[in-house]
């Protein structure tokens, strides 16, 4: 049996942030720290005082953590980044909200005297009898102190204060885990009403010393107990109240879980697997139906993702999804509203696509998204939002008309849409077989349920593929790891219009979309053509595998490359023994690339790199492509590499 804590955090947006740049704006991003250890950095949102991030993370924590701090920073290219403010959430605050906290929290100013961490090992005791009593404090050691110096450490010493007198320990140079083993004594005052204050400081040769935290003991409590010994958490100085620095909208939920041995879960797993294998039984109440009806909308997504992972591990995910399709279609429903609700079937299929289809998503959308970010074209079709600008060469300026701006935007958008549809239409062989099989089941079930509405089975597939997968990824590529930063305002508007176009194509009825937003009418011919192409693509996607030919000249179906989970600089710390990373790095920085299949590394992003298959040891002769597209999965940590790799190597991403 094991205990663990899981933190779900969504950093939504900020508002009314102070301007830190001379332009009257800021370039904000967030850093999340658990007990003062940084674990998450969001993307930077440029030139705004009301940034939107919308980034979600799931982090596994030690059950004994104390607090979560979220710092809002202003990124600067030529100097150190400015600290705008922070939000601190303690474990006790999260315990008061078992369903999670959601809302706006005001930012507070960051005081260096409040940025403390770590613990100190002390033994404090009262000695002697009445008339000659002494207060003795043995300062043994400290651990995990804050790093205040440029060398990544501190020079800590201890200062003890009691009854107006001060004593100090020696300074331990360049250490966050110092050992002192020194003892200090004070004459006990009568009456002994004073408190003993034990402070830890970072010694600096130039400038003032930095405060690292303190522990305060009540003398009355010591007289009763006689002695106190153990590790004591260092605490900051009293907080100072400052003016408003804006606010941050957060959604934070903490789950404390007790994980039992695997055999304890086998009866439930067997029951679920048996139900999925039997399929839908008329007149029988199914367990998954009870799960659907008894879970709230807030937790249904979590239930769906866990069930998908469970049945993937059992090799029954196709049967599970098919059962959900059958049960959903057995309810009274209309063909034009199929799978548009947040039912367990809809959430499970959406989670299934995100778990199994991310490499395919990157393969299809990546080139077009990259082109949109690089070109930064001005695209606008709404007359109410058109910006009129001067055009022409020097001396021949003229003002573009509204119609010219809209026509130019239509051409750009139609070009992006055409390129994206070309990629989708060609991607049927690259779609993972498991995803194709799931869509094939869905296509057949809907066709059997609505034989008189054959159009419905195409819409059922596109409702997931386009509306819940492609379109959200186009709108916010950062959240799907297609980009390492959020789009600027101009690029974001282009992506929004492109995502809207994909939605209209996925609806398979572009005319209905035009009725809501008449300014989309210039795009109608392209949407109609895209609908016809999408219908042909769905027909090929759900075709039986034996009906599919192989790609010309390749001898096998085209497949997407492995999805990049994380890449960047890797600093290898040598501890003991030898390993493939140590042999290549010898204490130097490496560029690494982690995919679902391998870990590759080299001296530079463009160099050929070696790869270590996960669980398969080193493959010294295997080469990987150059590291070129940064991509970070939210919540990913190299801690998993340390735990799952050899004990001789320690890897830290920088």
Describe the structure.
One of its GO terms (molecular function) is GTPase activator activity. With 654 residues, the protein is α+β, with helices and mostly antiparallel strands. The protein folds into five domains: 2-109 and 243-252, C2 domain (Immunoglobulin-like); 119-233, Immunoglobulin-like (Sandwich); 265-346, no CATH class; 357-547, GTPase Activation - p120gap, domain 1 (GTPase Activation - p120GAP, domain 1); 564-653, no CATH class. Helix content is 33%, strand content 28%. It contains 16 helices and 24 strands. It has helices spanning 91-95, 219-225, 266-278, 287-294, 297-314, 317-329, 344-356, 358-375, 402-426, 433-449, 455-475, 489-507, 510-516, 524-541, 580-585, 639-644, and strands at residues 2-15, 28-34, 37-41, 52-61, 67-74, 82-90, 101-106, 119-127, 134-143, 156-162, 165-168, 179-187, 195-202, 210-218, 227-233, 247-259, 390-391, 398-399, 564-574, 589-595, 598-602, 609-613, 617-624, 649-653. Helix 6 (317-329) runs antiparallel to helix 7 (344-356) and helix 7 (344-356) packs across helix 11. Residues 390-394, 548-557, 573-577 and 606-654 have low confidence and may be disordered.
> What is the name of the CATH superfamily of the largest domain?
GTPase Activation - p120gap, domain 1
Percentage beta strand: 25-35%
CATH architecture classification name of the largest domain: Orthogonal Bundle
SS-derived structural category: alpha+beta
As for the number of domains, it is 5
**How many extended strands?**
24
Pfam families: C2, RasGAP
Biased composition (Polar residues): 636-654
Domain C2: 1-105, 116-232
Region (Disordered): 617-654
